[in-house]
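call fold target=Claudin
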Amino acid sequence: MVGNVLQIAGLLVGGLGTIGTFAVTGMPQWRVSAFIENNIVVFETIWEGLWMHCIRQANIRMQCKVYNSVLALSPDLQASRGLMCAGSALSFLAFLVAVMGMKCTRCMQSSWQDKGYIILTSGLLFILSGAVELIPVCWVANTIISDFYNPVVNVAQKRELGEALYLGWAAAFCLFAAGAIFCCFCRCGERIRRYGYSTPTSYPMHSQHLHRKTESSYSKSQYV
């Protein structure tokens, strides 16, 4: 019963992390324009993502444009594209492997031991996908903070942390949590199987001698 609850909890948390990873990859709110000037009235809000940048004017109209060239992006955004795509693929693969390893699913007549290995594989994939996602999120956040406090950078070019970065941290945490749950479940299941196997009971020596004596006495009585 506890194992089923752990599996369902790990699958739900991993599903949330997978959905969050796909959402972070497509969201344009990685970099948000910083309002640090003296002007109170702000007419434009600039969003910069991995695939496009958007301009929102006075909370009324928003225009988005896809980047014309990958080389025009900064190095952190160029690397984040590949890493986030890899993290999305790994998290989706981990989710599919976790579904195959659930106790309630039957796939190719696999035994309980095989399902334990499948669950362990999904847990490791979840942890790997969380690490792959955490690298670009932390890299972009570090670049934004460094440029914000750099006096050489122009005020109009300074940015703040967008909502996609916070969602990326939450999604990476969910992926790490799902991987830990599945790895712990596989560990606990291995211990239960190890203690569950009991050695065959051996009869004492004196009972075997007694049994032999009764058989010999019975055989002698038949000759009388």
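return ok
The longest strand covers residues 52-57. The CA atoms of residues 120 and 183 lie 5 Å apart.
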